[in-house]
Amino acid sequence: RSATPALERAYPGGGSLIRQAFLMKHVSEKAADTLIQSLSTSTLKQYEVTFKSWWKYCQDHNVNPLHAQVEEVISFLQYLMETTNYGYGTFNAHRSALSLILPGVGSNFLVKRFLKAVFNLRPSKPRYENVWDPNIVLKFLDVPTPPSDLKKLSYKLATLLLLATGQRIQTISLIRLSNIKTTSKGVTIPITERVKTSRPGCNQPCLHLKLFTEKPNLCVATLIMKYLEVTRPFRESSMDDKLFLCHQKPHRPAKRPTISRWVKETLKEAGVDTSIFSAYSTRHAATSDAYRKGVSIDTIRSSAGWSPESSVFARFYNRPLTESPDEFTNRVFQLDPN
């Protein structure tokens, strides 16, 4: 039960802790390094919160973090219940993280029972009870954009891409020029890099953007072509293949937080209350609007990147208005007459 001398030191980091746990299972160092690659960067970042808390708890209670018994894990979870307002989703993430370094914990009867109690006491809730009407933003953006204004062009393209597809900001931040395929009907963009939903047996996202001749100012396919033309001079000295570039010199590739800020500023200018709604709310707004306009749940799942059997949309994304592949974009961009 007591902490070993090797563990009585500063927190080594989540990756190091996981690697130690793998090595304790008598795998080789190279195999341990390979096993760590099964975890995405975002998952490791999420688990880091758990491991830091767990490490401190173990040091305070003289417990070896890699040899703890189930009752010690239960005590840790109870400690979090008493000292935080974490909901069920966070506790479930803690269970997943601890299962990596303490095999068998995640499936243990007492741990599962504890998590069920947390679900009853602190159930997961949708981020938003209602959502804004995409028409507000679409009407705001339904104006010509001067090619000379790279800032406005960048903000508009990022926002419309999210509304046209229902995808995550992470997904559009991974668009590569080499993957953009143009035809007489529009643009197809397969996402080849790993995303949140990437796993064996699951298809990678593929964005389908048809030419939207009825509303040329809102045509995402045309806007992509215009954006590529405007940014071409800035790409000559860059080897990076990413679609989005920062609109300020030296025009480096735009990362996810930057694109998120662009979208949030656009929503605010359009009249969306950004003290409540983040840039990520475009996913809620677009998918909910598509459903209200008659798009099937299967089509919504496919366009927005959920698996065919996923219940996430119904549970967390299908929200009423605050006031109330191609088919998805058509319906979302079908403006109300008033």
From TrEMBL:
**Superkingdom to which the source organism belongs:** Eukaryota
Which Gene Ontology MF annotations are present? Answer: DNA binding
Keywords of the record: DNA recombination, DNA-binding
SUPFAM superfamilies in the record = DNA breaking-rejoining enzymes
A GO BP term here is: DNA integration
Q: Which Pfam families match?
A: Phage_integrase
Q: Which InterPro entries match?
A: DNA_brk_join_enz (IPR011010), Integrase-like_cat_sf (IPR013762), Integrase_catalytic (IPR002104), Integrase_recombinase_N (IPR010998)
Query: What sequence ranges are listed for the domain Tyr recombinase?
Result: 124-333
Report the protein name in the record: Tyr recombinase domain-containing protein
Which species is listed as the source?
Nesidiocoris tenuis
